[in-house]
Amino acid sequence: MKRIALVGMPNTGKSTFFNRLTGASARVGNWPGITVDLLSAKIILGSTVAQVVDLPGIYSFHGFSEDEKVVRDFLENNPVDLVAIVLNATQIDRQLPFALQVVRLGLPTVLLLNMADEARHLGINIDARRMAEILRMPVILLSAKYGSGFQNVTQTLTRSLNASPAHAPAEVEQTFSEEHQIEATAADVLSAAVRVPKQLPENTTARIDRVLLHPWLGLPLFFLFMFLLFQLIFTLGKPMQDGVAWALTELRTLALEPLMSDVPAFASGLLLDGIYSGVGTVAAFVPIIILFFLVMTLVEDSGYLSRVAFLMDALMARLGLDGRSFVMLLMGFGCNVPALMGTRVMRSRDLRLLTMLVIPFSLCSARLQVFLFITAALFTVETAPAVLFSLYLLSFATALLTAVAFKSRFVSNEPFVIELPPYRLPTWRQIVLRGWHEVRHFLKRASKFITAGVVAVWLLTHIPTDVPAGGVDTLAGHIAAWLAPVLSPIGIDAQLSLALIFGFVAKEIVVGSLAAIYGLEGDALMGLMAQKLDWVQAYSFMLFTLIYLPCLSTVATLRSESKSRAFMVGSVLWSLLLAWLASFAFYQGARLFGFG
After folding, report:
1. CA–CA gap between residue 246 and residue 284 (Å, rounded)
2. What value does the mean pLDDT of the chain take?
3. Helices and strands, number each (H, E), in the chain
4. Is residue 257's pLDDT more than 60?
5. pLDDT at 442
6. Degrees (nearest 5) of the Cα angle 173, 179, 182?
7. Which DSSP letter does residue 148 get?
8. Integer Cα distance of 516 and 272 in angstroms
9. How far, in Å, CA of 480 to CA of 119, rounded?
C-alpha cells in the first residue's frame, strides 16, 4: 500500500482537502491546534490503494512546538511515497518558502494551491505550468471547499505514486537548507510565475473587521453574539427535544412494556427503568447537541475565533496566558480532550501547562446535556437561555481565576503571533460531515460509558433486593450517607451525589443516572426533579457539575499531555476544592438572602 503525507501551514484548508479527498470527517477549523493527531484514511487511486496521512499544520520545520516535532518525526521514521503540499494561493508569497523546505527533503512532492478561486477574485494570477517547470514538480490549482480541480488532483496523485518508490530519508534535519537559500529561490519562482496587484482591493473581510475588531465594541459584540447563539439553539432545539422524548415514551408504553410483561421483575426493571430510561433520557437531548455543534462549526470555520483570540490577548496576557489560550477554552466547549491536545502548538512548557490547567473548566458538550436537562425541568423557556449563558460566563470566570491563582507558578515569555484568515462560510457538506462526526462520537460514548454507567447506578440502587429501591439501606444509600457531610452544605442530596460520582467517568452519565435512580424518563423525570429541587439547589448542583472533576478521558489526557502525574493530581484536587467553595458560597448566600 502506498502512503501519501499531507503537509501544509495552518489555515490553508489542508483538513478540508483531506475530508474532500477521503470522505473522512476530520475536525476542520481556522486554528492550527485543531488537527493535532495523525489522521489517516485509505483511498483508491487508479489501481493503487493509498493511505493518506493528514499531518499537523506547521509554519516551519525549524521550530520546537509539539506539532513541528510530530511532522519531523513522522517524515524521519516512516516510508513515504509522496508528499502533497497544500498552500493557500492567496498567500503564496509568504507560504512558498515552506514548500521549498519540503522539496529540499528529497521526497517525491506535489504542490496543491488551494483557494485558487479566492486568489482569482483578488486579482492574483498564478501560472501553474510555469511554476511546475521551475520547481520540477506538479502544481495544481484547486478549491477544496467547492471541489473544483479535484479530478486533476486525483489524476496527478495517481501518476506521481506510480512513478516513484517509497522513500525514507535517513536524517531529514541534514537535508534542510539555509533559510536565505530558500528565500532566494522562492523570490525567483514568484517573480517568474505569480502576478500580484500592487494594491489588493478592500474586501468584505476588511470591512467586517472594522466593526468586529473595534477596540471598544469587539468584545461586547462577541459576548452578545454568543448569547444570541445560545438563545437560537435553545429556541429551535426545545421542540425537537420534546418530540424525541415523546416518541421514546410512546415506544416504551406501546411496545416495550407489553413485550417485557412476562420477564422477571428484576430483569425488566434493569432493562426498562435502568438502560432504556437512562439512555433514552440522554438521547432526547441529541437534537440540541447537534444544533450546538452545527452552530459552532459555522463560528469556527468562519475565521472569527482567530479574531477573538486577538481581541482577548491583552486581557489574557495579564493572566499569564495569551490569545491562543482563550481559543483553546472555546474549543473546550465541544470537548476538553482535543482542546488539551491543541496546546501542542505552544512552545513554552509553562504557558502550555497553565493553559491545560484552565481548559477543564470549559463547559463541554457533555456538561451541556446535564444543564439542558436541569434548566428545562426548573426554568421557563424565557429564562433558561439566560441561565445557560450565566453558566458559560462562570465557566470563563473560573478559568480566569485559576490562571490568576497559578500564573506566578507558570511563567512564560513566548510571543503571541496569530494569522487572521479571511472570513469564510463553510459549505453544507462541511457542516453535515462535522455534525455526523459529533453524533457518531456521542453514540459511541452512549454505547459504552452511558449504558455501563446507568446499569451500575441501577444495580447500586436496587441491591440488596430485599430493601426499598433507592433507599438508605441500598449500596447507593450507604455511599450517599458517606458523602452527605460534604455535599449537604451545598444543597446536593443523596440521589444527586450518586449521579456526580458516575459523572466522573463521563458527564453524559449524570442525566442517565438520575433516570435509573428514579425509574423515570422524559417529562416524568423532569416533573419529579422540579418537585424535589428549588432553583437554588438546582443552580448549586449545576455550578458544582461545571467545576468539579472533569471526565476520566480528560484526566487521562492531562496526564499524557503534561507528562506529569503530580500536575494531573494537582489539577483534579484544585477543581474539587474550587467547585465546593463556589457552590457553598452560592448556596449559603442565596439561602441567607431568603431565595429558594
Report:
1. 9
2. 83
3. 29, 8
4. yes
5. 61
6. 100
7. B
8. 9
9. 63
The C-alpha atoms of residue 372 and residue 363 are separated, in whole angstroms, by 12
pLDDT digits (tens, 9 = 90+) for 116-140: 999 998 889 999 999 999 999 999 9
Q: Is 467 or 400 the better-scoring residue by pLDDT?
A: 400
Amino acid (one-letter) located at 369: Q
Contact yes or no for 584/489 (Cβ under 8 A): yes
Contacts (Cβ under 8 Å, ≥6 apart) of 73: none
Interior/surface letters 281-309, b for 16+ CB within 10 angstroms, e for the rest: bbbbbbbbbbbbbbbbbebbbbbbbbbbb
User: Above pLDDT 90, what percent of the chain?
Assistant: 30
Give the whole-angstrom CA distance, residue 81 versus residue 320. 44
Per-residue model confidence (pLDDT) at position 309? 84
Are residues 357 and 387 in contact, defined by beta-carbon separation less than 8 angstroms? no
**Strand pairing category for 139-141 and 194-195:** unpaired
Q: Mean pLDDT, to the nearest integer, of 236-257?
A: 86
Q: Which of 10, 17, 23 is nearest to 432 (CA)?
A: 23
Which residue from 22, 7, 12, 16 is spatially nearest to 61, judged by alpha carbons?
Answer: 7
| Sheet with 82-88, side-by-side order of all strands | 39-45, 48-54, 2-8, 82-88, 109-114, 139-141
Three-state secondary structure readout of 577-592: HHHHHHHHHHHHHHHH
pLDDT score, position 443: 63
CA distances from 427 to 115, 141, 146, 254, 294 (A): 14, 19, 8, 41, 12
Task: Extract the C-alpha cell encoding 420.
Answer: 487572521
| Residue 414, C-alpha cell as written in the block | 513566548
C-alpha cell of 552?
Answer: 476520566
- 583 grid coordinates: 457552590
What cell does 451 get?
449504558
**pLDDT in the model for residue 17:** 92
Length of the chain: 596
Distance from C-alpha of 313 to C-alpha of 329, rounded to nearest angstrom: 13
Interhelix angle 179-193/92-103, rounded to 10 degrees, is: 120
425: pLDDT strictly greater than 90? no
**Full-model pTM:** 0.68
| Cα–Cα distance list, 256 to 180, 252, 281, 502 (Å) | 73, 5, 16, 27
Chain-centroid distance of CA 424 in Å reads 19
In this prediction, residue 30 has a pLDDT band, given cuts at 50, 70 and 90, of: very low
